[in-house]
Amino acid sequence: MVTLSEIVLGCADGKNEAEKEWFTDLFYTENHMVERVANDHSVFIISGRKGTGKTILAKYIEKAYHNKGFLTKVFSKEDLFLNYILEKTEDSFTQAELVIFLRYCILVAIAKHLVENENEIIQNPKINNFFKLVNYKINQHKLKKFYFDVYPRGAFKTFNEERQQQNTSSLIGHKFTIGGQTVRKKQLQRKQYYELLTELERLVFSVCKYVDIFVFFDDLDELESKKYLSAKTENVFITLLETIQSINSSFFQLGMSNSKIVILLRSDILQDLNTRSSNLNKMVIDGSVNLNWIKSTKLDETHPLMDLILSKIQKKCYPNLSKKEVYKQLFSGVNYINKRPFIKYLIDNSFGRPRDIITFLNIIIEKYPDRTSFDEKMFTDAECRRDYSRHFSDEIKNELSIHCSEAELLSLLTLLKKFGRRNFEYAKLEKFFNDNKNSYNAIQDLKSSIEMLYKFGVLGNTWHNSATNQYNHTWAYREDGFPDADFGKKFCIHHAMRKELNLI
Predict the structure, then answer these.
(1) I need a labelling partner for 40 at 20 to 30 A (CA). Which of 176, 245, 351, 445 fits?
(2) Three-state SS for 497?
(3) Would the pLDDT of 81 be above 80?
(4) Within a 10 A sphere around the Cβ of 213, how many other Cβ atoms?
């Protein structure tokens, strides 16, 4: 009998999971996202909330398509914006400079990858005759020379160079001094990125003819903090999206339709950009896939989140059983929790993301490693609930960190904790806040702060439906939820936050 400790569900961090030896074997492909991203050349954006699986999807494609002969890589923000440190001498970019600079940064990252993988590219099936091999080597040599002229190897870099040429002369019969010296000094200064772009682009595309490339740019959230660029943040993101789409179009027009660049972007950032740019909406509709796991209304083992969990367990532990049989084997004792269907309980206690569900189950597995199935008591266990609530709260804090200060967020959570109600009217919270204002100095505008907590799912709205005699709830993170808070209705605190705020 398989114990819970033998179950492998994955890691909360997609980068860590991608390093595990079982990663590709257990990866969930049944939602067909791999095919949508890989086969549709118009798709160049993967969006979704933190924890929905953007990074892990990119990492899987990186490995799977490398095995198919593609040159693949998931780049980080450092790969993209290291050139900011090397190239920029002024405090900020104009919009025209930003367009050129971002194109240059992307092409430099790709050029570096092409140069570093020269020997691998030689083995590519596209280089299938001597003529192509010779042409590839010529183009690769030119690219390599260009790259190392711009970014010399070694620990030191020369910005200005003086070259001296000494000539000794024995021109007998002339009035010049025998043995005289002629010294010539020449200062060399490297070209700026905007002077290098055209040649760089030509060389990169000349090498890409011989290998399909599939690269991703991930981990760009910190651009929101303006750590790398002084331009307005929305301009950076919008220009970056337009630049990637433009380079992909160049690949297509030059007959390299299998090659493309994809950017991973949080859905809240993308939605925010959409409100600021009238031209972005069509680009997003045509060019993006969104990872959303709670569209389905099914509350059984076929729900996408449960299907993902069962798929991983089946592949690792029960290869001869169907998913339905695996569900019966492991979860038959948890049909209902606190009078709610099991799947609904998981969704209500999460943001409907794989990361949340996997974290909750891994906490239970760690406490009950020798059990052979899950039961209701495990999910209501006080220690498991506390640990999960702490993880969930940390995720929220991390996600909100680029939208408000740490002090403001701490004050808001402390306010909700001291107020002590799971469901409340805004007017009563506002009165409590005003009566204790000196304790919450970091909160400048309470209404705006509550709106922010609603948009990120810490709070929802709830109201009584007289027709059904039940309470309805709406959450901004759900596709069937209202995007804006209704201050005329009661607010409710997310179930997974309540333990951390001592509201259970």
Answers:
(1) 351
(2) helix
(3) no
(4) 23
From the DSSP assignment, how many helices (H) and strands (E) are in the chain? 22, 11
Shared domain check, 81 and 142: yes
pTM, whole model, 2 decimals? 0.86
Residue 78 has a CB neighbour count (10 Å cut-off) of 11
Whether residue 282 sits in one domain with residue 305: no
Residue 17 lies in a domain: no
As a whole number of angstroms, the distance between CA 262 and CA 43 comes to 8
Is residue 62 within 8 A of residue 72, CB to CB? The reply is: yes
1-33 burial string, b = 16+ CB within 10 Å, else e? eeebeebbbbbeebeebbeeeebeebbbeebeb
End-to-end CA distance of the chain: 36
What is the C-alpha to C-alpha distance for residues 248 and 103, in angstroms, rounded to an integer?
12
- Most confident range (mean pLDDT) of 48-57, 78-87, 119-128, 425-434 is 425-434
> Residue 155's pLDDT is what?
55
**Least confident interval from 8-12, 368-372, 441-445:** 8-12
3-class DSSP state of 263: strand
151: which residues sit within 8 A by CB, 6+ positions away?
Answer: 86, 112
Q: Which of these ranges, 172-181, 208-217, 429-438, 475-484, has the smallest mean pLDDT?
A: 172-181
Residue where one domain finishes, among candidates 400, 435, 452? 400
Sign of CA dihedral 294, 295, 300, 303: negative
Cα–Cα distance for residue pair 331/310, rounded to 1 Å:
10
The answer to whether residue 432 is domain-embedded is: no
241-289: per-residue pLDDT in tens? 999 999 999 999 999 999 999 999 988 888 878 877 777 888 888 899 9
User: Is residue 159 assigned to a domain?
Assistant: yes
One domain for residues 259 and 188: yes
Q: For position 176, what pLDDT does the model report? A: 43
pLDDT tier for residue 504 given thresholds of 50, 70 and 90: confident
Q: Are 128 and 268 in contact (CB under 8 A)?
A: no
**CB atoms inside a 10 Å sphere around CB 456:** 19
Domain range for residue 342? 1-9+293-400
- Same domain (yes/no): 268, 362: no
